[in-house]
């Protein structure tokens, strides 16, 4: 059996054809042009891509991971970032089912990433976990006994919005955006001159400003993770997003910062992991969500 999978981000839409075991047989990307062309044309593009692949594969459904707050029971986008005009209020699931003639599920992108890691990545076997994606902002998802905790308004896990004293929200002080801002300020450069990869390359070459900015990010990340640990006490914390590629460099820094903030018996029962599925996590998690919801599969 084959499934159409989408992972919808602010600038790029990833797509793939997946087998039932989560293996991606074919994948690609296209630009998200919702700002330039509108929500209607955006949905038409998703339908067109799906229908094109239906000519080659006997697709069983469409599995979607997307930015925004999603009602996973109905497929309605409850809230969308400002760079998704016309998206909020749309029943994306209904629109895709009508356009493609296939069953569909829609889930928030961080929730999907957590499902993917639970199924085939670093979350396997965990009774409870909290997945954190660090990028332009910070997203989060709590899972207990293999199920996503959605909350009353479908926004459980949005830990990036927690206030961290006078400095602002967690994502304002600990995201990759904050890392770039701090490193650029220290070096007297415009923020556009740096990105995460450049900062890590500088740090590994011994640049003191880059090292200090990364160290601050890890301390700030640890402060928010400690809050999560004291509230939810998960068995496992999984770090995803672009920084997951820097596992070897970051793990000892983040682990030490967490150790200093947690009571010993809490720290000793916590496993810190970096996400394994990288850019495919959203699509694999979207498929996991589809199999659980539409076909009642067991992971």
Question: How would you explain this protein's 3D organization?
Answer:
With 299 residues, this protein is α/β, with parallel strands linked by helices. The chain starts with a strand and ends in a 5-residue tail after the last helix. It has helices at residues 34-54, 92-100, 109-120, 170-174, 176-187, 196-204, 208-232, 247-261, 264-267, 281-294; strands spanning 2-8, 12-19, 24-31, 59-66, 69-71, 76-79, 104-108, 128-134, 138-144, 147-148, 236-241, 271-274. The radius of gyration is 19 Å and the shape is globular. α3 (109-120) crosses α10, α5 runs antiparallel to α7 and α7 (208-232) packs across α8. The strands form three sheets. A five-stranded mixed β-sheet has the order 3-2-1-4-7, with helices on both faces. A five-stranded mixed β-sheet has the order 10-9-8-11-12, with helices on both faces. The protein folds into two domains: 2-113 and 280-294, Nucleotidyltransferase, domain 5 (2-Layer Sandwich), CATH 3.30.420.40; 125-276, 2-Layer Sandwich (Nucleotidyltransferase, domain 5). The chain is built from ten helices and twelve strands.
